[in-house]
Structures are given as structure tokens and as C-alpha cells.
Amino acid sequence: MTRDPLSSGVEAGNAILLGYQQRWVADTSPVKLIEKSRRIGLSYAEAADDVLYAASEDGANVYYISYNKEMTQGFIQDCAGWAKAYQMAASQIDESVIEVDDRQVLTYTIKFDSGNVIQAFTSNPRNLRSKGRPGERLVIDEAAFVDDIQELLKAAMAMTIWGGQIRIISTHNGEDNPFNELINDVRAGRYDYSLHHVDFDEALADGLYRRICQVTGQAWSREGEAQWRQQMINRYKPNHDEELFCIPAQGGGAYLTRTLIEACMAPAPVLRFDGTKAFNALPEPARAAEMEDWIRDNLTPLLRQLNPRRRHALGQDFARSGDLSVIAPMEIGETLHRTVPFLMEMHNVPFKQQEQVLFAIGNSLPRLSGVAIDSRGNGAYIGETAHDEWGGIVDQVQATENWYRERMPRYKARFEDATITLPLDDDLVEDHRAFQLVRGVARLPEGKTSGQRHGDGAMACVLADHAADLDVTEIDFIRVPQGATGAFDPDDDDELTTDWGSGAW
């Protein structure tokens, strides 16, 4: 009998399925989907799992849908091959035609002794609404190319009511395709579906080319793999980004429109502090004293207005001299609506005074429950000092392409759903409009985006939104003021006052 497809040992060539195939099969979520590179064997892995599922007494029927006859035939043949390898009692492939909405639809069926079947359709059968007995599974392959995927999913979701399962597999077919919209909705948190992502390089890292060499009888080498990778890219050009690297075509332009941004704004302060030559030339104790006065006069009145019953988060997009360094506190309301009560912008301000401002804000935020600091480059210093101050609630963010890919759809959804409120400020609007789709991922482009700015205010808000999603325990403490003698009297109720958001542990 063939080895279990979940076995390990990819490097040694022992595993039947590669790492990404194993992770896909091992995921038993009710609804899961994957954006993938071409020809990496996801349908093959799905067939392996579907045979085990349909052949099991605890399994159920499996229905497979794709957009052309060749894919459907290939899948059902893979299923037959797996059934033989597993030594599962199964019938030969039965080819038949059924009537659906006055149309003839070609189907292929394999029956198992368990009483379950795998049935593959050559087009979108409208009779899915009759499916959905307990545990039944639907597989939609190359979903981005299936006709009317939205209507198909609407009918399919009913299958989950009685414990059914839905598997959605596809490469991309354009930025505006419903499959890509579904992917972005999942990333935005609108659906609790399980999402997988495997591009060409990730498949290679898991042994794709090694497996190709093994199957075709070639000798693997690192140089040969690099040459083959480039050949594939050249072969797919100019569509290689979409076909191989999961980047939907037609990506480009502003990610957030002015109308969308301004609809989620309301009057709120934007504080600005410029580190002049005279200020920066002062000794550090003198700078600290002057900054303390500025904090007391400008920040403290705003911090005292914050609602002590609400959780708060904080994000900082750091810069030392070229760009702006922006701090964005964020209140999380009872309905999870997120509000930035004010922004703090600093230009050319020394590290120690930025730290001073950051701690003044963070240690005054009620129920501080998350901090995200841009910790690339010089920001590593502020990220480390913030972690020293607040510990595990601090995320020292390195904003990679994957980070943007996962974070930005969630942030955009706040605007689309009107669940965020930002300070009404033209610079902040321009900062948000600076986000561009680069290789299909929303991010800030290189260089200045408006005047001396580089989307700094928007990035601070994105980081604050990220901090609000961190799964951490908020900071909460009771401050004990000391009397003239410095001693605490437990019988004196006047000495107990409640405060929030301190770095004290």
C-alpha cells in the first residue's frame, strides 16, 4: 500500500506530497481556499484527500467542479489512481450526462463501498442547492475561471449547515475577479475562512523542482533549479506575476479613494512638533525639560479627555530627520468602531525626545492593549525601548510585502464598512491616498509621496489598527500616591486613585 500522503521527508524524496500539499490536506476547516501558482499539484493533493474522505465510513460524498472537461477528467483520473494506491474498493469511472436547467452536463463518478461517491462536473451544476447532506464536500477548482462563481458559492455555503465542507482552489484571473475579491474579503476579516497562499518560489522551497526531477528521471542541482525557474518565468511573460506569483493582473493606482477616506473623518487635533536647530543644539536635559513643558501644555489636556472605559492601542511610524515620525493612538469602542482621537507628528526630533513623547502618550492611554512600532532601520531603537517599557504588548513591526498583503485588506475594510474615524486633515488624506497597488499588494511606494511626507500619518494609523488586533493582555494598574512621609496608609481611602496605561508591571 502507498505511504500515507501526510508522511514527512520531502528532502529525502520519501513523502508522497510536498509540504504545501500536506498543509492543505491537513487543514480541516469547513471552508478553505488557496491562491496558488500554476501546476504545483494542489488538485492532485486534493484528490488524495477526497478519496480517503469518500471511502471512509465517517466520510461523505465529494462533488468536484471545474470550468473545462480536461481538468475534470484529470481530477477524476487522479482520484482513481489514489483509490488504487490506497487499495480502496471503488468502481470504475462512470461517465454520464445529467439534465440541469434544460442543459446536458457531463459528469464522472466513482462509487466506493462506503456508499459514498466522488462526482465531478464539467460545468456549474445549478442543482447544488439539492446537495448538502451531513458532511458532504464541494471542491471548486480554478474558481477564478468558473462561470458565475458568486452564485455558485451562494448555493454551496448551505452545505456547511450540516457539517459540509467547501474547498476553493485557483490561480488568479484579474484584480476585479470575484475570486480575488473573496481573497481580499477573507484577509479583511469579513469571513472566517482558512486562507492558503503558495506562489512559485514557495513551491520551489518545498521541493517542487526536486519532485519534477524525481518523476522525470533528472538529476537535481541548485544551478539547474535556478535555470529552470528562470525558464518558467520567461515562458509565462508578460503574465508571470499572475500565473506564477499570485499577483492579480491590472494591479495599480490608488488603493483608497479620497471619497472613501474623507467619509471616515471628523474634526480632531493634529499636533505638530518641529525639532529646530536651536532645540536640537540644546543639551539633552534641557531638551527634555522643554519637551516636558510642551507635553504638559499640548498633549496632557487631550489625554485627559480619553474615555477610561475604552481599550486603546497605539501605532508609530518612525523617522528621525527625513520623513515625519507620527504617533497614532486608537480607541476601540463597544461596537469595535475604531477612532483616532488625535495625531502627534514630529519632524527632526532626537531619539530621546521621541521616546519621551511616546511614553507620555502610551502611559496615559486607558487600558493600553497593543502597541505597534515601525522598527525598520533607526526605528529599531524606538521599538526596543517601547518593548522595554510595555513588554509583550509591543509588536516591533518589519513591514514586509507579506505583512502589507495581510494587513491592508483589513484596514481598507474599515473604510468600506465605516468602522473607523480619523482626524479631518488634508495631509492625512494625502498620506492615505499614497498607498498604491505594487505587484498586487497595497503599500507605500519608494520616495516622497507629498511634499516632505511619505504617507507617514497613514502608516501610523495602519500600525495602530494592527496593534488593536494584537492578542495581548491590556495593561491596568492602581497608582498609590505617597503622603508627606512617603508611607502608604491602607485605612486612608483618599490615597487610592485609579489610573490606566502605565508601563509599571
Can you characterise this structure?
The protein has two domains: 20-199, Rossmann fold (3-Layer(aba) Sandwich); 258-476, Nucleotidyltransferase, domain 5 (2-Layer Sandwich). The protein contains 17 helices and 21 strands. It has helices at residues 19-26, 42-55, 69-86, 149-156, 178-187, 200-205, 208-216, 222-236, 240-245, 258-262, 277-281, 284-303, 351-362, 379-390, 401-416, 426-433, 456-468; strands at 31-36, 62-65, 94-100, 103-111, 117-121, 137-141, 165-170, 194-198, 265-266, 270-274, 311-317, 324-332, 338-339, 343-347, 368-374, 394-397, 420-423, 436-438, 441-443, 476-479, 497-500. A hairpin with a 2-residue loop joins strand 3 (94-100) and strand 4 (103-111). Helix 1 packs parallel to helix 2 (42-55), helix 2 packs across helix 3 (69-86) and helix 13 runs parallel beside helix 14 (379-390). The longest helix has 20 residues, at 284-303. The protein starts with 18 loop residues before the first helix and ends in a 5-residue tail after the last strand.
